Amino acid sequence: MKKQLFVLASLTFGVLTSTAQEVKFEEYKLDNGMHVILHKDNSAPVVTTSVMYHVGAKDENPERTGFAHFFEHLLFEGTKNIQRGDWFKIVAANGGQNNANTTDDRTYYYEVFPSNNLELGLWLESERLMHPVINQIGVDTQNEVVKEEKRLRVDNQPYGNLLAEVKERLFIKHPYKGTTIGKLEHLDAATLEEFKAFNKKYYIPNNAVLVVAGDIDIASTKKMIKDYFGPIQKGEPIVRNLPQEDPITQPLTGTAYDSNIQIPAVIAAYRTPSFKSRDAYVLDMISTYLSGGKSSVLYKKLVDEQKQALAVQAVNISQEDYGIYALFALPLGEVSLETLVAEMDEEIVKLKSDLISEKDYQKLQNIAENNFVSSNSSISGVANSLARYYMLYGNTNLINTEIDIIRSITREDIKAVANKYLNPNQRLILEYLPKKDDK
After folding, report:
1. Whether the predicted pLDDT of 439 surpasses 60
2. Which of 62, 208, 301, 396 has the fewest Cβ atoms nearer than 10 Å?
3. CATH hierarchy code of domain 26-229
4. Nearby residues of 403 by Cβ (< 8 Å), 6 or more positions away
5. How confident is the model at residue 438 (pLDDT cuts 50, 70, 90)?
6. pLDDT for 436
7. Which of 252, 253, 269 is nearest to 328 (CA)?
């Protein structure tokens, strides 16, 4: 499911002594347009079967938001050959595990099995694609599940609506202005025919990539894929013509309230380019420099030394069409939100005027390389990366070459990108406050 916006990831500092091994893969298309990627790794008797669909929250009717996330749940309900409620039982009984997740850009389903159950994984995903049962019982059941998830993860979670408030103000035209979980009243109002139409439009082989990774035999795997997925009918081509945003040239401000919090927060958010842009990689490095761990610039300054903040974070949320770069802070005691913004701005100005030290630069390179290697340290991680790089970046081999982009980033690039995007006239300042008691 979805990660929370401002949760600091654990970062490992230190020089990476090993280099990333090349991930070998083979890719091809079925006649129905389904893209297939195979990765053989016989080091452990495990196999991941996964399907990524190029459909997310940005593809929804603005009056029917939440459909993509809803289908993440709905397509586990059952198929013509899998009784309702049996999907997870079948997986568990055969020594496997499975899950799914949705973003604004894509939906991802996967199973991890002992390699002797590869065929079962392929059959399950082909059933999801070819024979889904979409009926009112399933819709009503999953509607309640989604409502409970929203209550737990958003409505009753401190700062749970923070990202939604930021997106709504940064995006005026593009559907990124909505949330992945959507509006529950839209799901309540939707008809069964609308759900069926959404499935027919987006859950088609020519809008999907199948990845099989792990302890496999290539020839027999190809035959099984052809047998299970080859007969699935190709869908109508999907044409996307999403609106582009006008540049932000004047400062934006806003105020939002949350009844689940007692400590206010302040967010300085900037609209940034797609994660396909090289600049997005640089912004990732800037985030690490500013708030990646207790030795980072903003943590040392605001939390450790000056004791002005309970927490502080810089985060780069990159997506297929645009990104959000956000600075976030919680004040300590009577420190004002304006003071926190000023203190964070001071460090941005330094980035824009001076090169970071060579020592800090090497540290950033080490962390970035370590993170890259770690993301592909498991079979399931490799499967996810292969699907994502093909579907969203249009270049499967980034699983091997992305590290070269990271290594090519210079201190001068960090300075230039900070100057390009992190400007006061290009941002939103949002005060996120405790909700006042209604009198």
Report:
1. no
2. 62
3. 3.30.830.10
4. 20, 369, 372
5. low
6. 74
7. 269
pLDDT category at 20 given cuts 50, 70, 90 is: low
Name the CATH superfamily for 252-434.
Answer: Metalloenzyme, LuxS/M16 peptidase-like (3.30.830.10)
pLDDT digits (tens, 9 = 90+) for 253-306: 999 999 999 999 999 999 999 999 999 999 999 999 999 999 999 999 999 999
Q: Quick one: average pLDDT of 413-426? A: 98
Q: What's the confidence (pLDDT) of residue 437?
A: 63
**CA dihedral defined by 16, 22, 25, 27, rounded to 10 degrees?**
90
CATH 3.30.830.10 domain residues, the chain: 26-229, 252-434
Task: Give the Cα separation of 347 and 369 in Å (integer).
Answer: 24
Owner of token pair 């923070």: 162
- Global pTM value: 0.92
